[in-house]
Amino acid sequence: MRDVAIIGVGVTKFGELWNRSFRDLGIEAGLKAIEDAKLSGSEIDGLFIGNMSAGRFINQQHIDALIADYSGMASKHIPATRVEAGGASGAVAFRQAVMAVASGMHDIVMVGGAEKMTDIDDPSINSVLDATADAEWEAGMGLTFASLHAMIAQRMIHDGIATREEIASFSVNSHFHGALNPNAQFKKAITLDTVLRSGPVATPLGMFDCAPISDGAASLVLCPLEDAKKYTDSYVKVSAVAQASDTLALFQREDITTYGATVSAAQAAYKTAGITAADVDVAEVHDTYTVAGIMALQDLGLFKRGEAGKAVLEGKCQVGSDMPVNTSGGLKARGHPVGATGVAQIVEIAEQLRGSADKRQVENAKYGVAQSSGGMGSAVVVSVMEAI
Amino acid sequence: MASVAKEWREIPGRYNLVGCKCGACGKVYFPRRNLCPECRRASIGKMEDYAVCRKGKVFTFSVIYDAPECNNLLKPYAVAMVKTDDGVMISAQLVDVDIDKIEIGMPVRAVLRKLDADGESGVIHYGFKFVPDL
Fold first, then answer.
1. I need a surface site. Which of A27, A34, A293, B30 has the fewest CB within 10 A?
2. A200, B63: Cβ pair inside 8 Å?
């Protein structure tokens, strides 16, 4: 297997982008990544797209062909593949692309992640999100995606793993960074009180515990590590990308306060990269809800069980502190166009390792980790990138 | 609009909490599975119907304020993960309860209720919900 490099990154602004279509967003991110990689575009020989539900959000299936066509690749007939894994769609697409290059089947591959969510009304959007859990035995029984996370939070508080304040502080951390990211949906720092006093969504979680509904796209260009210098001086190495699965329904698990898939993928990724959690300098985690962010920090081994919430509340996950997490603003403040999220996390880690993260820059970052989760941790990808 | 068949084929589970028991290792599952995740191939053809105990205790819960359209009239409403007395975990709504007085460990029992309806003229879905077991 060949080592793989990320030679180009691109991301659109995330938010409620009424004047932009799915096509506009996907192509903007792709063009930015091609420009960043200093390619003409004709070198690309494969395309992987992460997209959760264009079928229900914009009534368009066959996103692979659409993106290939509108990015001008249709006449070249390159293989284009759309990947769906709930919230982890983009990250799974990234892994497919890494494998394609590592195996030697492809040389220069583009990864895209895109979602246009605001073309339908809010209740309809929520129903689509609920369907990433068990549609028959969770959503079909009246449970919502938010309530599933809320039940984890309730149990964490009950078991003394984290307090309500510690869980809420994850949102403060994400907004702190969102204020520093020009592409974030919410460029505004908030206080803990704002989170605790926000309207209830599913108790104990309120509005400010939840990632927003967003439009947006992100893109990457990959090539074999040994060829990266031919195109650019600004690249990072993909040291590992591991994927794991778990039960579809949350209630089928022995322990709901940890995601076994995150633990499993993290262990595999660290082993492949030859590192331990202590070597990680910066991390992007899947904070669809604050409680999911706290769990991710523990499951990745960045903090011990019962200590992650305290660390976040004390500001230890802010840039400039011990363990910077979600410097992009995370899903909560950067925004969460579902299919784009897993790719956008990789973009942020690459920016950090290249030293191009501007006001969010973590000093001397060597290893960066991204954790992306689909459904209730039913599909998780953990990726490790290394500065060159 | 969904087909009627989609509704009736799930009736044993939805109305009567019929899950299954692995004939090889004896482990119980809800909902029904075609094979036992512990025994896998050894369990094929040996998964027997098993009606899960209708009584249990609240393992965790939440009160929903932001509901899907079909449940708009219910909100706020409670949902819970319930561990039944025979050790099976199940998720469902928790009704006929003061939403401020739900506690982890609270005894509950399953009852048959209307879940929701598929639009104005579609299928009405029925299934179990939990109520306090006083």
1. A27
2. yes
What is the architecture of the domain spanning A122-211+241-387?
Answer: 3-Layer(aba) Sandwich (3.40)
B13 within a domain of the structure (yes/no): no
Q: pLDDT tens track of chain B, all 134 residues?
A: 778 888 889 999 999 999 999 999 999 999 999 999 999 999 999 999 999 999 999 999 999 999 988 888 899 999 999 999 999 999 999 999 999 999 999 999 999 999 988 888 888 999 999 999 98
Number of domains in chain B: 1
Query: Exposure of A81 by Cβ count < 10 A (0-12 exposed, 13-18 middle, 19+ buried)?
Result: middle
pLDDT tens, position by position, A157-193: 999 999 999 999 999 999 999 999 999 999 999 999 9
B25 within domain boundaries: no
Domain presence at residue B67:
yes
* Distance in angstroms (rounded) separating the CA atoms of residues A345 and A347: 5
A interface mutation test: which of B65, B69, B89 has the most A CBs within 10 A? Answer: B65
Chain A closest-CA separation from residue B68 CA (Å): 6
- A169 to A164, A177, A287, A321, B106: CA distances (angstroms): 9, 13, 12, 15, 29
Distance to chain B for A152, nearest Cα, Å? 8
Interface contacts A/B by beta carbons within 8 Å: 91
Contact assignment for B65 to A144 by CB distance below 8 Å: no
d(CA A344, CA A334) in angstroms, rounded, equals 9
Expressed as residue numbers, the domain containing B78 is 53-132
Q: In the structure encoding, which two tokens stand for residue A89, read together?
A: 């769609």
DSSP state of B52: P
Residues 6+ apart with CB under 8 A from B101: none
Q: Closest Cα of chain A to B115: distance in Å?
A: 7
- Sort out which chain A residues have CB atoms less than 8 A from B66's CB and list them: 126, 144, 146, 201-202
CATH of the domain at B97: 2.40.50
Model-level pTM? 0.97
Contact list, B127 vs chain A (CB under 8 Å): 140-141
Token duo for residue B37: 């995740």
